[in-house]
Amino acid sequence: MEVEETETKKVEKKDNEPKEFKNRQRVMLLCSRGITARHRHLMSDLQALLPHAKKDSKLDSKSRLYILNELADINNCNNCIYFEGRKHTDLYMWISKTPNGPSIKFHVTNIHTMSELHLTGNCLKGSRPIVSFDKTFDSTPHYKLIKEVLLHNFSTPTTSRRIKPFVDHVITFSIVDGRIWFRNYQVRIH
Prior knowledge:
Layout: H1 2-16, E1 27-31, H2 37-49, E2 53-55, H3 67-74, E3 79-86, E4 90-97, E5 103-108, H4 114-117, E6 128-133, H5 141-154, E7 167-176, E8 179-186
Parallel strand pairs: 1-2, 1-3, 6-7
Antiparallel strand pairs: 3-4, 4-5, 7-8
């Protein structure tokens, strides 16, 4: 009888301990058919910046976007970034929290890829970024929602398999003239 009591006490101790929260955010990156080479380079740059992202093949249908939730579920992802090209000139980026969360549609303009900027310094692949937001994101409720969705998609969890244990770049989001600007800065110590 004493053995059974000690075993139940051990189980009770395990049940009463608070479980540690683990951030298990995974992002699925995919695009529609018909995007240009510049848009594909932007997508590959984002994949290099986000070590917790999984790239999927192109989506054939632009009208049935509910398929994105099923694809994210199959790939064990709870966030999705979808690039939709129109008329070979316009690029739209859908960022969503799958399966039931909000989705935000951005019209992407002023694209500069990392290869065309000829950057001499490179951040290490797989390093975690510091995600920084402008104080304007706290001013209105819809900017707060956009901030949360961007934070879930661009902040790398510490439990991800492909990350390095240090930080060497900063991803910043700022609002200027009603537009959201995304920039990546490398941290260097002189």
